[in-house]
Design goal:
The protein is mainly alpha-helical. 62% of the residues lie in helices and 0% in strands. It has one domain.
């Protein structure tokens, strides 16, 4: 929901879990962040290619911010999934409106478990 609220396109959101990322969807800087987040979320080592892509696009301070934000999102998602925290009605409404894009999200959703 946050991505939509800050203007990230549905197309970009739909491809967040793709590996490899499709050409032409993300800028080089965006792709570097997405690849870092994918590896980090999957608890894979951050390889040299991923690290070099970040250092090519960002300063050390910016990479620290990226790392902290990805980690914060991960712990928030794990906490909410573990404790099945209540979701505000406006989030549920936005989720319903998102339709296909939300269904394509690679993050586990207990509400869709079968």
């Amino acid at each position: 929901m946050l991505g939509r609220s800050i203007g990230i396109s549905e197309e970009k959101l739909r491809h967040l879990g793709d590996d490899p990322l499709p050409d032409g969807i993300y800028s080089e800087a965006e792709a570097a962040i997405v690849r870092y987040a994918q590896r980090s979320t999957r608890m894979l080592n951050i390889d040299e290619a991923t690290s070099m892509a970040l250092t090519k696009q960002f300063s050390v301070e910016q990479i620290i911010d990226i790392c902290l934000n990805v980690g914060l999102a991960q712990i928030t998602n794990r906490f909410n999934t573990t404790f099945l925290t209540d979701v505000d009605d406006y989030i549920l409404e936005a989720y319903e409106k998102a339709g296909r894009a939300a269904a394509a999200c690679p993050i586990h959703d207990p509400a869709r478990s079968g």
